[in-house]
Write a structure and sequence with these properties.
The protein is mainly alpha-helical. It is built from four helices and no strands. It folds into two domains: about 55 residues; about 45 residues. The longest helix has about 35 residues.
């Protein structure tokens, strides 16, 4: 049994030495390399998830988004008009264009 145990230990040592890479390499080098590769994979995966979430948020635009942004724009225009930085004619033209834009972007529901 003693010979068999020594042979098994010698075999494991030989495998570990081969994993070390170049002659004289240690298993510590291999472990450090594997940790670095794992960290790189984890960071890359995290970056991909963040990019996909931001992309989805930026590309998601439903009918509610158009009316919400139009509402904010109208508030800004009302403020400019109230401060005298915009004439009534300019305000009415801008308001009509925003209203037309919102009507085009919001689907019309018909009753059946």
């Amino acid at each position: 049994m003693q010979v068999h145990t020594d042979l098994a230990i010698g075999t494991h040592a030989a495998v570990l030495a081969q994993l070390g890479g170049a002659p004289g390499g240690t298993t510590g080098d291999t472990v450090a390399l594997l940790i670095n590769i794992g960290a790189a994979v984890a960071i890359t995966g995290g970056a991909i998830v963040v990019i996909l979430l931001v992309r989805r948020k930026l590309l998601r635009s439903g009918p509610g988004d158009a009316s919400a942004s139009a509402s904010g724009l109208l508030d800004s225009l009302r403020k400019l008009h109230a401060e005298g930085k915009m004439t009534t004619e300019e305000f009415n033209r801008a308001r009509a264009k925003i209203g037309a834009s919102v009507r085009r972007s919001v689907p019309v529901r018909t009753k059946r």
